Amino acid sequence: MLKIENLVVSYGPINALKGISLEVAQGEIVTLIGSNGAGKSTTLSAVTGLARAQSGSIRFLGEDITNAPPHRIISRGISISPEGREVFPALTVHENLRMGAYTRKDKEGIQSAYDRVYGLFPRLKERMEQVAGTLSGGEQQMLAIGRALMCEPKLLLLDEPSMGLAPNLVTMIFGLIESINRQGTTILLIEQNANMALSIANRAYVLETGRIAFSGDARTLLQDDRVRSAYLGTRGAESRKG
């Protein structure tokens, strides 16, 4: 579904990505983990057209989308729930969700998307007329993911969905990610909680200073001593923010 080959992205003199290659197959959850500054969010920015590739290629469903404008990428079936949630604080929950469907014109399809999101996130339905700025952190994260689902993406990009959440909410969010995947949405997940990410993913890539250091089956990497030492702590319970 998504194929990145030899991708290079720089910010001035800083080489954020140094020729990375990765793939996401239809139906998978693939996670990209690594320490702060490794280039994880830059990867998503390149996929969504927000960061320009110096070289390499990004293909989605067989089409070259390298350096395509973001609106074209969204229309092809990719959406993102960004780091920091970035909800519209003065708009209601329902209005925020409508912003996620701004490229759509089909009223029945939009209503179906509302129904799906409210089914996944009943708490948002309870608060549909509440302004987003008054929601809790967990509710705002639900809203950010729900907004990304409103365009019914084929590929959902999640950037640090558990950041700043209490442990019980982290567990709930990861359960919802699995539910979204079971409904047929392919997911590329960037996550600071490497232990949780590896526990739900099919495959994983470990990014170190702009290069892929390890890749493979997520459960296998969860038990890899090098990965456990660097990203999971001595007991596999800790993770670094990325």
Provide a compact summary of the structure.
This protein has helices at residues 40-47, 70-76, 93-99, 107-120, 122-126, 137-149, 167-182, 194-200, 218-222, 225-232; strands spanning 2-11, 14-24, 29-33, 55-60, 63-64, 78-81, 155-159, 186-190, 203-208, 211-217.
Compute the CA-based radius of gyration.
Answer: 17 Å
Strand content: 25-35%
SSE order: EEEHEEHEHHHHEHEHEEHH
Outline the biggest β-sheet: 6 strands, mixed
Give the CATH class of the largest domain. Answer: Alpha Beta
Number of domains: 2
Task: Write down the overall geometry.
Answer: globular
Low-confidence stretches: 234-242
Number of helical segments? 10
Keyword list:
242 residues, alpha/beta, Rossmann fold, six-stranded mixed beta sheet, four-stranded antiparallel beta sheet, 10 strands, 37% helix
Protein model, in words:
- The strands form 2 sheets. Strands 6-7-8-3-9-10 form a 6-stranded mixed sheet, with helices on both faces. It has a 4-stranded antiparallel sheet with strand order 2-1-4-5, with helices on one face.
- Helices cover 37% and strands 25% of the residues.
- β1 (2-11) and β2 form a beta hairpin.
- It has 2 domains: 1-77 and 153-242, P-loop containing nucleotide triphosphate hydrolases (Rossmann fold, 3-Layer(aba) Sandwich); 88-152, no CATH class.
- It has helices at 40-47, 70-76, 93-99, 107-120, 122-126, 137-149, 167-182, 194-200, 218-222, 225-232, and strands at residues 2-11, 14-24, 29-33, 55-60, 63-64, 78-81, 155-159, 186-190, 203-208, 211-217.
- The protein is of the alpha/beta class.
- It has 10 helices and 10 strands.
